[in-house]
Amino acid sequence: MAAEKTNPMRILDRAKVQYRVHDYTKSGVVAALDVAAAMNENPARAFKTLVTQGKSDRYYVFVLPATKELDLKKAAAAVGEKAVVMIPSKNLLATTGYIHGGCSPLGMRKQLQTVIDSSAALPGPFYVSGGKVGIQLEMAFADLAKVLDYRLADIVR
């Protein structure tokens, strides 16, 4: 178990959601595919969290498998925008409270509309950032609904 609890861990603890902490801080990796490899996880079950901004200036969170890329057109359609663009890394901390490589859909500074790729609902473990670079959480995807308001959609290419 990690020595220091992160916001996502505290949220899961309060909701009595079971999870396992995976610490990969010694590996020095940040990219989702590299993290999955370092943790010997199925990369299709290791999910990355991306933050975008729509034409309306609203921010949106998209959670998708490490093996895939966000399809910006599908993502925009999923949130009812004409277009969305990735926010610059330098704006991530102010917008979410997280830095690049440690962004979790749980415990953001302000809850943003969140869309998770529909593949997350497939059987198997669900891995997501623990809110800090080097920390990943493994949990049952079904438990996510206890702590996060989200919708499922096909958002990848």
Can you characterise this structure?
It is a single chain. The chain is α/β, with parallel strands linked by helices and 157 residues long. It has four helices and eight strands; from the N terminus they run H-E-H-E-E-H-E-H-E-E-E-E. A hairpin with a 2-residue loop joins strand 6 and strand 7 (135-139). The radius of gyration is 14 Å and the shape is globular. The mean pLDDT is 93.
Short structural description:
The protein has 157 residues and is an alpha/beta fold. It has one domain: YbaK/aminoacyl-tRNA synthetase-associated domain (YbaK protein).
Annotated CATH architecture: Alpha-Beta Complex
What structural category do the secondary elements indicate?
Answer: alpha/beta
Cross-sheet strand order for the largest sheet:
4-2-3-5-8
* Biggest sheet features: 5 strands, mixed
The helix content, as a percent range, equals: 10-25%
Portion of residues in beta strands equals 25-35%
Q: Low-confidence spans: pLDDT under 50, at least 5 residues?
A: none
Distance between the termini: 35 Å
